[in-house]
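WARN retry 2 of 3 for item q-0093 after timeout on previous attempt; input resubmitted unchanged.
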Amino acid sequence: MTFIILLSGFPNVLGAIDCTHVRIRAPSGPAEPDYVNRKSFHSLNIQMVCDERCLISNIEAKWPGSAHDSRIFRESALARRLAQGEFNGILLGDRGYPCLPHLLTPYSDPATEAEGALNYAHSKTRARIEMAFGQIKSRFQCLKGLRVATDRGCDIVVACTVLHNIATLRRERLPRVIEEGNWEQVDPAGHQEPLDGRRVRDLYKDTYFS
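OK item q-0093 returned
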């Protein structure tokens, strides 16, 4: 993973993280209900991390639509590697994630000018991942609805992501970008944000935004 160039005053960022849903045909078998997401259609929930160019640096493509973003991250190899200190930097995520020392989320209710400034910079930087989702789905219309087995669908999403990165590096022209709908979910444990994550966020606020 490489560092994002300093955007909106937010330093030391490894990437922006989020999940996106890819619609699929209803699978057969007892696991079918697991693929129904909170908007009541069948999908895969795909986690990605991107850099400032909307290049995808990490992808987790194996979860059904009902899986919460925070669970996908918590059980990923990426989360383990970050927790072990393998990378020197942070990810930026929305409030669907817990605030952790290596994954900062915005203040849920900013009470000071500095907290508001951090939230603004966080939003402007994290917007890259939403842009990346729109670009990938615009380039590959098959992702509007996959009619294959779920494991095959996961392979197709990964393949499309690799091709997106190649097209981005080659600066190929983008089609009209499809805007992502609002999928943000507040982390179920977010009412009690981990203290160590809040301390790191406060350190960023006091150091860079006060």
